[in-house]
Design a protein that fits this description.
By secondary structure, the chain is of the alpha/beta class. The chain contains 14 helices and 15 strands. The strands form three sheets. It has a ten-stranded mixed β-sheet with strand order 5-4-6-8-1-9-15-14-10-11, with helices on both faces. α3 crosses α6.
């Protein structure tokens, strides 16, 4: 079998609770600026969330925003920003050979809750049910809104991978490029999670929803006093190209995707399993042809739940042992858990390390839980590493899905 084409990232488009472009996002990650704030949603009441404030009308008409979905608007923003960041001229591409692959978690809940609320105001007269409901709730809706916005004709669909979905979108986009199915992929993950009261109610019933008098300190992975997840919205799409195509157009190459693995625990609906995560990390390393000590930064999934963080650290210890070269950080401590968009946002926040040589920290880590102690965990202050060559981005989800992606610094 011939060697597969090498795949590179040439653009990053994102919106997060603490930044709507990579430069701002990275600046806030290095400065310890949280994007979590007080929030209130009907039926559930006051809570905390990571809320995005991007200017949707930059790329969409108000009518399009009303007709579509919040996840669609996030995806449209990220796609356009990725195209701009990569300095792409879409008119030079066959529109049938541009693929759109966002990962998603619970898409459709928001729209259904909204319609039920609407008809409840009219004694449940279903004549008031919106005719837009079906296109809003189909699983491919965010991807479809992007192709409509960019006037594309290629494959556009979503990857349902729970909280591992952002990595799945990235992996799938790369595979479609390697198979020759498309010439450009916009891939990653998006989420509109904070607009469904059901997700807050469900996490609360599990005792897994974060609480803190200071919203900015609520998301605290690995901390002794962590008490749950902060639900967030947001997303990130990467412009992916085959290396030879990127070089031919003189593109700026952000990073090369060199390894990945997706597997399942096969053990429980919600509880993670260290063995499955261990196998996933080792699978990504094997695909990249690397040993654990070759990884400079591990971007952790850790959601700030008591059991989840401990299981993940256990898996990291099993794989990486006492590797003195590998440093560990977390991004959810700043922005909460953006569900389908989480993995892509977390990878994006670490990519600038290839340029500045700095590992952004995990914030809100006031009292390290002894059960979450791992070598070279970067806490509260950035760590200057000098030169970063490799990053492993980990993301895990319900029903036991695990994902790990390895990216490498690009040197021409």
């Amino acid at each position: 079998m011939a060697d597969l084409p090498r795949i590179v990232i040439t653009g990053v488009g994102l919106t997060s609770p603490n930044g709507n472009d990579l430069a701002t996002y990275r600046k806030n990650l290095l400065a310890g600026v949280s994007g979590v704030s007080a929030y209130e949603i009907r039926h559930f009441g006051p809570t905390l969330a990571g809320i995005c404030d991007f200017e949707a009308t930059r790329y969409q008409k108000r009518k399009e925003i009303r007709r579509g979905t919040r996840a669609g608007s996030v995806a449209v923003w990220c796609a356009n920003e990725a195209v701009r960041d990569a300095d792409l001229d879409l008119s030079r591409y066959d529109p049938a050979r541009v693929g759109i692959y966002p990962g998603v978690t619970e898409h459709g809940n928001v729209e259904t809750e909204n319609e039920i609320h609407n008809v409840s105001q009219h004694d449940f007269d279903l004549d008031f049910w919106s005719h837009h409901h079906n296109p809003r709730t189909v699983a491919n809706s965010p991807a479809g809104e992007v192709v409509l916005n960019l006037n594309l004709r290629g494959p556009a669909y979503c990857l349902g991978g729970a909280c591992a979905a952002g990595n799945l979108g990235l992996v799938h986009g790369a595979q479609m490029l390697q198979l020759g199915e498309v010439d450009l992929a916009l891939a990653g993950g998006v989420s509109e999670s904070i607009h469904t009261f059901g997700i807050f109610a469900s996490f609360a019933s599990q005792g897994a929803l974060a609480r803190h008098e200071d919203p900015t300190k609520a998301s605290r992975p690995f901390d002794r006093d962590r008490n749950g997840i902060v639900v967030s919205e947001g997303g990130c799409l990467f412009a992916l190209e085959r290396l030879e195509d990127a070089q031919a157009r003189g593109a700026r190459i952000v990073a090369e995707l060199v390894g990945h693995c997706v597997n399942s625990d096969g053990t429980d609906f919600v509880l993670p399993d260290a063995d499955g995560q261990n196998a996933c990390m080792r699978g990504a390393l094997a695909k990249a042809g690397m040993a654990p000590e070759d990884i400079d930064i591990i971007s952790t999934h850790a959601t700030s739940t008591p059991s989840g963080d401990e299981v993940e650290v256990n898996a990291i210890r099993q794989v990486f042992g006492d590797s003195p070269k590998t440093f560990v950080n977390n991004t959810k401590s700043y922005i909460g858990h953006a569900m389908g968009g989480a993995a892509a946002l977390e990878l994006a926040g670490n990519l600038p390390s290839f340029e500045d040589g700095i590992v952004h920290p995990t914030i809100n880590l006031d009292h390290l839980d002894p059960d979450c102690e791992v070598r070279n965990l970067v806490a509260n202050e950035p760590h200057e590493l000098g030169r970063v060559e490799t990053i492993m981005n980990m993301s895990f989800g319900m029903l036991g899905i695990n994902s790990a992606v390895v990216v490498r610094r690009w040197d021409a």
